[in-house]
Amino acid sequence: MKAVAWIETKRDGGALTEADWRAFVQGVVDGSIPDYQISALLMAIYFRGMDAGETAALTLAMRDSGRTFQWPADPRPVVDKHSTGGVGDKVSLPLAPLLAALGFRVPMISGRSLGITGGTLDKLESIPGYCTRLGPERFVEQVQTVGCAIVGQTEDLVPADRKLYALRDVTGTVPSLPLITSSILSKKLAEGLDALVLDVKCGRAAFMDTPEKAHALARAMVELAHACGVRTCALITGMDVPLGRAVGNWLEVRESHRFLESCARAAGGKMPAEDGWSDLKTLVVECAARLLVLTGRARDPGRAVEQAEACLGSRAPWERWKAMLLAQGTRWDAYEAQLQADSLAPVVAEVLADREGWIVDCDARQIGELVRDLGGGRRTAEDSVDPAVGVDELARCGQWVRKGDLLGRVHLRQESQKAEAVRRLRAAFRLADAAAPPPPLVRDCLWPEPASARA
After folding, report:
1. How many domains does the chain divide into?
2. Domain containing 407 — which CATH number?
């Protein structure tokens, strides 16, 4: 009868104890609480909310519902990044090896795409031989030796979250702020982190489409993680336009590879100046810089940015990237052959500007929906994805184009898809006679204490 009492307490606006939340999570995992009672409690939480103490208690109970990682004694801090997801968001791919090169350990447990939001695992699985499922011993060993590993969630990692999310998905309770924060952070806390940087996307192609929603989620996660003992900050970043110049699983891997390779070739000289990589570089560096500050390895964000840029402009991140791919089974000859191919898709269509003008918008939502509809994303969690399809060579906001200039390319499976795909990609761009500044990428940064204390 405890479940009924919990439901009634939350229905009436009360708070459950830490012991209540631990008993609830245990019942979720062992099946002793039926789905209809779990769903009723989730709905009560959706309408009545949870206080900070309750959210922390639920998060820690979820973390402890399965395996947690403890790391060998080592001066290298254990860190990770979490993004709420976006179109073209490939930051994890170059960030993990950069962090390893900076002297961090990075046990990155990532997810798959859903809707227009890309998934890091789907991207990496487009690499020949790359294994996203490592046993816990091998996972720890690779992080200790290479410095980073990017894998998928195993069955024994936070099993409570899988059950709760499945029920939230079919009961209309996904948008609940305390349930979102506990779901995200329980998995990150299970990694045994010293510090975490959050990338909370804001804009029309983001889960949080307004600044107010993005700030509320970011603040809730920063405060919760801090209360649970993990030093955390959150970047609020724009997701109105795609990140980088490619959207699609393999195309984003190739872009990330070329970015790191270009940095390695420029070692000791100037950073790569390709226009399409400026936003990717900015966000990778900003995430790394925040972790340097959080772990006390840089005194302020400005110096941390300089430190991260200096490392990115060396060969070290590229070498860690290659070491990670090889450690996780990549067949290097086949991988290099894919990199040299113009496309893995049988049909490639160029999309040309039908007038001259300044590009003042490139709608990330429209592009994400196009790539999803071509097979590059999922409508349901059970769908498979096509690694080859997508768009690349996207023109950038603030760029001047003449009639006939390239706006982008579409990679697709069938010739019959070509006309509609070209129409949709062209429609995602808006041209004007006057230039307009592109929207800012990094909108804000939230720390556990007031931002002025970090200035």
Report:
1. 3
2. 3.90.1170.30
* Residue 82 bridge partners (DSSP): 198
What is the token pair recorded at 209? 């489409």
| pLDDT recorded at residue 445 | 97
For the segment 286-319, what is each residue's pLDDT rounded down to a tens digit?
999 999 999 999 999 999 999 999 999 999 999 9
Say which amino acid occupies 157.
L
Please list the active-site residues.
80-83, 120, 168, 183, 187-188
- Residue 441 carries which DSSP code? S
327 and 398 housed in the same domain: no
Rounded to the nearest 5°, which phi and psi values hold at 174?
A: -60, -40
Q: What is the DSSP letter of 454?
A: G
CA distances from 141 to 81, 106, 131, 157, 274 (A): 20, 12, 15, 18, 36
Containing 74, the helix (H) or strand (E) segment is none
Residues 129 and 25 in one domain: no
10-residue mean pLDDT series, the chain (455 residues)? 94 98 98 98 98 97 97 97 96 99 98 87 97 96 99 94 92 93 96 98 94 96 96 98 97 97 77 69 98 97 97 96 99 98 97 98 97 91 91 96 98 98 98 92 88 44
CA distance 371 to 247: 7
Q: What is the CATH number of the domain that holds 37?
A: 1.20.970.10
Residue 61 lies in a domain: no
The token pair at 197 is 């940087």
Q: Which residues pair with 200 in a beta bridge?
A: 236
DSSP state, residue 229:
T
Among 378, 336, 397, 344, CA closest to 408:
397
Looking at the structure, tell me whether residues 189 and 313 fall in a common domain: yes
The predicted structure's pLDDT at residue 271: 53
In a shared domain, residues 428 and 447: no
